[in-house]
């Protein structure tokens, strides 16, 4: 394999994960990846130069089968086709690299005993319609069978659902109500982050409405019309107003140094296979309410 001129100067491990898109850099060791040039084994940190000829040898990851775990789940609603939950802070939605236990999926597999058999081709995401970030709390809906998954998923794709989030921001938005649009793509300088780009990536669209302002903090209602990874966090940060407690797109706040990510999926309006159109609401967590009250915003 010859290295194209545009990849010269890049680290070998980044070339494998980003340019060739073989697998994440974190899997190089677990896949026993070995790269040879001129008959010699090369180190992952090798800087590419010239038109080296490589051979790459790696192993497939073993197929993982996840079992249910008896986890505490806050169930808002359940019938024979769906289950609606209030996801706790710190819970990952489905197993992924670095998160193999304690996920929402494993809790659902224990609670819904037929879920694994209903989705034999989707062992990592059985019934998962949409996701929330690990530190985001709030409402999430899951399907118990493939037909329901498609029925609910189609509503998300056609944007007929209505989602509302609450967030506390650092800073002031330009208007009391507004919309933010743009393409979201990975930040080339940090693969764990996303950024707004003029033309690359996936389209994203968020509506916002300011609920209250106190000093340098703004309480907002956010309505995402698309569901991109980190969308609300990136959109708020793009306005110079990162979400309070967001250590990725913002900085630690001196007044609330222990603040969690102040982003809560408050409500979802959706058509159910049984029961017609329904609106669900997820109780706001105590740590979120505590900061609202400290800022003088009492809900009750």
Written description of the protein model:
- The chain is α+β, with helices and mostly antiparallel strands and 300 residues long.
- The chain has three domains: 5-57; 75-157, Pseudouridine synthase (2-Layer Sandwich), CATH 3.30.2350; 162-294, 2-Layer Sandwich (Pseudouridine synthase), CATH 3.30.2350.10.
- 16% of the residues lie in helices and 31% in strands.
- It has helices at 12-19, 104-111, 115-118, 146-157, 231-238, 286-294, and strands at 34-37, 40-42, 54-57, 75-78, 82-87, 137-143, 162-170, 177-187, 190-197, 202-214, 217-224, 263-272, 276-281.
- The longest helix has 12 residues, at 146-157.
- The protein is globular and about 70 Å long.
- It starts with 11 loop residues before the first helix and ends in a 6-residue tail after the last helix.
- The mean pLDDT is 90.
List keywords for this structure.
300 residues; alpha+beta; Pseudouridine synthase; ten-stranded mixed β-sheet; three-stranded antiparallel β-sheet; 6 helices; 16% helix; globular
End-to-end separation: 65 Å
CATH architecture label of the largest domain: 2-Layer Sandwich
CATH class of the largest domain: Alpha Beta
CATH-assigned homologous superfamily of the largest domain: Pseudouridine synthase
Strand content: 25-35%
Q: Structural class of the helix and strand makeup?
A: alpha+beta
Shape: globular
What percent of the residues sit in helical stretches (DSSP H or I)? 10-25%
How would you state the average pLDDT, rounded? 90
Ordered list of secondary-structure elements with their pairings:
Blueprint: H1 12-19, E1 34-37, E2 40-42, E3 54-57, E4 75-78, E5 82-87, H2 104-111, H3 115-118, E6 137-143, H4 146-157, E7 162-170, E8 177-187, E9 190-197, E10 202-214, E11 217-224, H5 231-238, E12 263-272, E13 276-281, H6 286-294
Parallel strand pairs: 6-12
Antiparallel strand pairs: 1-2, 1-3, 4-5, 5-6, 7-11, 7-12, 8-9, 8-10, 10-11, 12-13
């Amino acid at each position: 394999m010859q290295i194209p001129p545009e990849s010269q100067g890049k680290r070998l491990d980044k070339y494998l994960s980003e340019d060739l898109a073989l697998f994440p850099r974190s899997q190089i060791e677990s896949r026993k990846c070995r790269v040879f040039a001129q008959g010699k084994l090369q180190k992952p940190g090798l800087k590419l130069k010239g038109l080296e000829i490589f051979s790459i040898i790696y192993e497939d990851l073993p197929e993982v089968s996840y079992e249910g775990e008896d986890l505490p789940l806050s169930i808002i609603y359940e019938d024979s086709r769906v289950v609606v939950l209030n996801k706790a802070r710190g819970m990952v939605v489905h197993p992924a690299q670095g998160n193999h236990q304690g996920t929402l999926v494993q809790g659902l597999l224990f609670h819904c005993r037929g879920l694994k058999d209903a989705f034999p081709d989707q062992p990592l995401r059985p019934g998962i319609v949409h996701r929330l970030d690990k530190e985001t709390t709030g409402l999430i809906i899951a399907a118990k069978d493939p037909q329901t998954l498609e029925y609910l998923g189609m509503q998300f794709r056609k944007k007929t659902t209505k989602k509302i989030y609450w967030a506390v921001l650092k800073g002031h938005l330009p208007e009391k109500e507004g919309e933010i649009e743009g393409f979201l793509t990975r930040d080339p300088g940090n693969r764990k982050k996303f950024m707004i780009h003029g033309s690359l990536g996936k389209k994203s669209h968020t509506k916002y409405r300011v609920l209250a302002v106190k000093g340098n903090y703004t309480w907002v209602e956010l309505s995402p019309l698309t569901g991109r990874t980190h969308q609300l966090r990136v959109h708020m940060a793009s306005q110079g107003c990162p979400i309070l407690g967001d250590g990725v797109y913002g900085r630690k706040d001196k007044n609330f140094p222990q603040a969690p990510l102040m982003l809560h999926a408050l409500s979802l309006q959706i058509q159910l296979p049984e029961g017609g159109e329904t609106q669900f609401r997820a109780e706001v967590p105590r740590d979120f309410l505590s900061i609202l009250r400290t800022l003088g915003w009492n809900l009750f």
